[in-house]
Amino acid sequence: MHRPLRNCALLLCLSALLAGCGQASPEDMLDNYSDRVARVLDEAIDSHLDATPAIALLPPRRERLLPLTDLRQGLIEVLTLRHCNLLGLIAQRNSSLGKVMLPSKQLVYEMRLLSQIRDCRLALAQSPETLTDADTRLMQQLDSIHHLKTKELPAVLWNAIYASREMESNFSIGDPPLPLRLNDNQSDGSEAALRSLQTLTDLQTLIASPHWQLPAGLDQLEQHYQTLEANRFGSQWLKSVWLLSQTLEHTARALDRRQQRANICPQQRPTPKARILLNVFTKYYAAEVQPYMARVDRSGQRWRALHRQLLDSLPATAAMREYQWRIFADANPDSLWQSYIQARDHHSRSWQTTLRQCNLMPGRE
Fold first, then answer.
1. Where do the structural domains in the chain lie, given as residue ranges?
2. pTM for the complete prediction?
3. Are the beta carbons of 121 and 281 closer than 8 angstroms?
């Protein structure tokens, strides 16, 4: 092969190798870190990152769906409601497509219906002296529907969020973790997903007010569901938290076992092996694992806070309250979130103990 062609081929191979290195997965990065610690300590570490994640499964839809009153108006009553410009909405709901509305579409319908009923009641109430018997019956009908729909609106919002296919996708355990590195023009989908979840959470805050008005972007609500489905940030975040928990806890246990078996610095002074261990800590934990962990933690805190607001404020089903307890709860030491916090803190303590005994704590001479 001619030298220029051979050089070109070598460059292409090198580029491919570098590209492959740049596309390493979080599992590869975490395995590499724990393997290097294990070799220095002479301790086995198997975090089982290729195992099925031990993450609680989202309850089936039937256990997430709240029942709603099926309000069917008689023909005469429907004709009466024409005075409130409600016939179009009611016809839409009673159509063949309306009977199989997606939860998100039903939310929009219920909010529009409530808004128009409220406007009609206010208009009638402004001139009580001119009310006819028919108007009085209409007011009674409106009051009854308004009371029922207002009472059930939080349940409608609950179903629109937690009975939706899009939210189900965000609690799947089958997606890969959040990507390891992002270029300047890349996104892991967290910001878009968080904005969409924030929009749904804003609706909960809105309907909690007795005098709420229809939000300007209600017609674009479906776009936020599409964003959640396209990004599936929640599912990726769950996997990332589990991978980090496994790696940090198993690495901490290896550090503890080595301290119990044989101190890596028996004279409280740095040994050659201790300096190699410090290099692993600096090069592979502080430079690789910790930035990834910080990104997962930062975006996850916001994701978790929004879900907790919804779960605490809306009439959640019993199955979903149990699921929240197993995934997000601070008070449950076995929840996914608390298992991560405990592993993170255990890992930090074990490293501090080891480095302190070797007089190698960062910042010291």
1. 24-65+174-365, 67-162
2. 0.86
3. no
